[in-house]
Specification:
26% of the residues lie in helices and 19% in strands. By secondary structure, it is an alpha+beta fold. α1 crosses α5 and α2 crosses α5. The longest helix is centred in the middle third of the chain and has 26 residues. The protein is globular and about 55 Å long. The termini are far apart. It binds 2-oxoglutaric acid and fe (ii) ion. It comes from Triticum turgidum subsp. durum (Durum wheat). Keywords: Iron, Metal-binding, Oxidoreductase. InterPro entries: DIOX_N, IPNS-like_FE2OG_OXY, IPNS-like_sf, Oxoglu/Fe-dep_dioxygenase_dom, Plant_2OG-oxidoreductases. Belongs to the iron/ascorbate-dependent oxidoreductase family.
Length: 343
């Protein structure tokens, strides 16, 4: 299939991208109410004696929203911009330069594709994407990465290393905020090969007809996302879609299914989606921190307590979860259902 980025301007939304009316984003209803906003947390003070307060803020945001933004996170601006520019440059290349990287085989760790029919009924979404194994930065992984534009590999290595460090800091703060050992999530729970989605959403002539990405929850432990300054990400909260407002230099952090299971439902994974816009290309760089495939997952004994009640999920191997996720529609309940203990 042709990539959307192969044709820079689209005069109308081709029929195959027009979603059935019940799946369209109903943009008119999506304005967030002024009293509810996704928290923005300043990590600067996590270095000093306010650490406990920052950890508590993170837990509050995680319980209330399952998603938050962080600023003063320690990832240098030029590292973020350097990779964002290389990624934008990748999609701006002529079709023949992207062709060697193209694949629609969903099982491939590295691929460039367009508009996956995520829910397998043929609906098309308004995006191209690049999926990459981005961490650890090993020769084997780097050899898979695009070598064009020229700065792609070096800027990805820098970005991936820095974001990985940030993710470990966040996981440590989450653990501390839950009164777990600070290293609780280090090791196998977050030590799987890290995947990155680089999502490219071209301007869309009619955003009311289609979506950039359908509503879904991330299957991993934690997602660290750079959305730049173009809005489009929305998170479900209290039965409505809240816009994740772009904050200069911020990373968006959202919790995945594994965090919900490990914390016995105390911290919930959040459903989110991407809407399109008429004016600007939107690029999101999404780093997905995940357990090792063979890692056993289940509610942590420390998290099965008065606050959370009896264990809500069975224990499983992470690879089983990934299999179930791929087989089910990516909707929240469909996937969690397999692993929930039904009383
Ligand atoms: O583009 C976005 O902001 C959302 C991307 C996303 O949810 C994903 O890649 O899983
Ligand atoms: Fe996502």
């Amino acid at each position: 299939m042709e990539l959307l980025s192969d044709c820079p301007v689209h005069a109308s939304v081709p029929d195959k991208y027009v979603l059935p009316p019940e799946k369209r984003p109903s943009l008119l209803n999506d304005e967030p109410s002024s009293d509810v906003a996704i928290p923005v947390i300043d990590l600067h003070s996590a270095d000093d004696c306010r650490r406990q307060l920052v950890a508590a803020e993170i837990i509050k945001a995680s319980k209330g929203f399952g998603i938050f933004q962080v600023v003063n996170h320690g990832v240098a601006e030029d590292v973020v911009q350097g990779f964002r520019e290389a990624a934008a440059g990748f999609f701006a290349m002529p079709a023949e330069d992207k062709l060697p990287y193209r694949s629609d085989d969903l099982s491939k760790h590295f691929r460039v594709s367009s508009s996956t029919p995520y829910d397998r009924n043929g609906d098309r979404y308004w995006l191209d994407y690049l999926k990459i194994n981005c961490h650890p930065v090993t020769d084997e992984h780097v050899r898979e990465w695009p070598d064009k534009p020229g700065s792609f590999r070096s800027s990805l290595a820098e970005y991936s290393t820095a974001v990985h460090e940030l993710a470990q800091t966040l996981l440590r703060l989450i653990a501390e905020g839950l009164s777990l050992d600070g290293g609780f999530f280090a090791g196998d729970l977050s030590g799987g090969s890290t995947q990155m989605n680089v999502n490219y959403y071209p301007p869309c002539p009619d955003p009311s007809l289609t979506l950039g990405l359908l509503p879904h929850c991330d299957r991993h432990l934690l997602t660290v996302l750079s959305q730049g300054d173009v809005a489009g990400l929305q998170a479900r909260h209290g039965g409505r879609w809240l816009l994740v407002r772009p904050v200069p230099g911020a990373f968006v952090v959202n919790l995945g299914h594994q965090m919900e299971i490990i914390t016995n439902g105390l911290l919930a994974s959040v459903e989110h989606r991407a809407v399109t816009n008429t004016d600007a290309v939107r690029l999101s760089v999404v780093t997905l921190i995940m357990p090792k495939m063979e890692c056993r997952i289940g509610p942590a004994p420390e998290m099965v307590n008065e606050a959370t009640g009896p264990a809500k999920f069975k224990e499983f191997e992470f690879s089983e979860f990934i299999k179930a996720y791929s087989a089910a529609a990516a909707s929240r309940e469909d996937v969690l259902h397999y692993f929930r203990i039904h009383r």
